[in-house]
Amino acid sequence: MNDYNLFWVNYLLNGYMDKASKYYLPSYENISKPRKGNGQLFFKNGKWCFSFAITFELKNEVSSEEKEVGVDRGLKYIAVAGDKEVGKYIHFSGKHIGHIRRKYSRLRRIFMKNKNMKALKRLENKEQRIIQYWNHVISKEIVRFAKKQGASIIKIEDLKSIRSMKKFWKRSDRNINSWAFFDLEEKLTYKAQLAELEVVKVNPFKTSQECSNCGNVVKKNRRGSLYTCSCGYKKDADVNASFVISTRPSNEEKAITAT
């Protein structure tokens, strides 16, 4: 166990944080009720190891600042975070993850055909660990980007209906859809709250077809990976979508307005 892990385990066991630790941040005051999640005992490199997750409840405090960044999740890029105000963005390619998913999908078919359920279970666990690792990396970098831009709100699309769209996608797209969109959302939400940021959801309707410069919504403006509008604006399509997301009202705001 390293010092960082020990900091959180002590909090889990004792119920208080060591504020003298170099790992302590004032934003951790928003954390309450730590709980131990699922654990796993395994043998690795000649040693027995035990790993487990720690989950928290977080106080929902909204910042008074209103700068926002948008996050578009998709196929070419797993995620693109964009700050429309200054035109900056970061992106995370889906090529590597797509390769991993196709590889494990192929192995899964082989094991199922041979009825090797033990190997199938090990494969599933390994695949989940890889997915969770990359979700941790991506969510951490998005939060870091938002903090660097001085944002207090991260906006994401409300993708609760994405699984119902699965049957309309191409086979290659389904490989990426297997990527845990909602695991990324969960990790992004709690990492943002730890950093004193808020994550809100917006309507995903035609975010890929709307121009972030003039607001026009034309389906043919998006051609593959490039977005080109009649107003003269040209941008990577996923970057444009992240800019659009950053300017949309949250679902909560729309509900209040309707009321």
Characterization of the model:
With 259 residues, this protein is α+β, with helices and mostly antiparallel strands. It has helices spanning 3-14, 95-113, 117-148, 171-177, 181-194, 237-247, 251-258; strands at 31-44, 47-58, 68-73, 77-83, 88-93, 153-157, 198-202, 222-223, 226-228, 234-236. The chain has a 5-stranded mixed beta sheet with strand order 5-4-3-6-7, with helices on both faces. Helix 2 packs antiparallel against helix 3 (117-148) and helix 3 crosses helix 5 (181-194). The termini are far apart.
Please sum up the structure shown.
By secondary structure, this protein is α+β, with helices and mostly antiparallel strands.
Q: Give the uncertain stretches in residue-range form.
A: 171-176
Helix content: 25-40%
Measure the end-to-end span.
52 Å
The overall strand count is 10
Contiguous helical run count: 7
Task: Give the CA-based shape.
Answer: flat
* Rg, alpha carbons: 21 Å
Mean pLDDT: 83
Structural class: alpha+beta
Which H/E pattern describes the elements? HEEEEEHHEHHEEEEHH
Beta-strand content estimate: 15-25%
Summarize the biggest pleated sheet: 5 strands, mixed
Strand order of the largest sheet: 5-4-3-6-7
